[in-house]
Every structure is written in structure tokens, then in C-alpha cells.
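Re-run with default settings, no changes from the original entry. Doing this only to confirm the output is reproducible before filing.
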Amino acid sequence: MGGAKKPTAEKKDKSGNTKDPKKESKKSKKDKGEGGPKKAEIVVMVNEQQAMKIIQNSKVVTSQDLARQTGTKISAANAFLKESATKGTVKRIGGYSGHHLYQVVSS
């Protein structure tokens, strides 16, 4: 059915073990991690005042929303929301399987 694959143009052009110096320089840049977009620094702690302001200004909030808006990790935002729920400042109103919705408790 099949057969042997035809060699590509690149394999036909190669003669012996000569290495292309241009390809080596490209590899070294990738190895060093130079170039490309810089990643944003991720903060582990949630600023309580900033987080409460975000929660109060929205109808409902998830840990993913809070993490995106505060620039923190999802795990830190989730821990903050769970802690706030035990304190009674927010309540869990819905969601499932770790994707819970939280709302501010009205006084």
C-alpha cells in the first residue's frame, strides 16, 4: 500500500555532517530565552481593599474574575474568597465543581 517516503528537499541538499552556523545561532537565542513577549509578574497575595472594591462593584464574582482583575493567581483569589465567606463578608450563591459564584453580603 505505502512505500518509502520521498526525501525532502532539505535532506537532499545536506551533504555529510556540515552544520549551518546560522541555525546554531538561532538555537542559542532560544536557549537563552531572549526575545518574545515578556510575561506579566504574578502576585501571590491579594490586596484586600482592592479585592473588596471589585466584589462590591459587581453583581457576582468568581475566583477567575477576581484573579484576572487583581493580577493574582487563581489559587490566591480562591483562598481569599473562601476566607471571606467564612468571615461572612461574602456568600457563595451558586456554581459547581470549583467554579463558584460569590456575592457581597448586604448589611
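The chain has a mean pLDDT of 79. The chain is about 45% helix and 10% strand.
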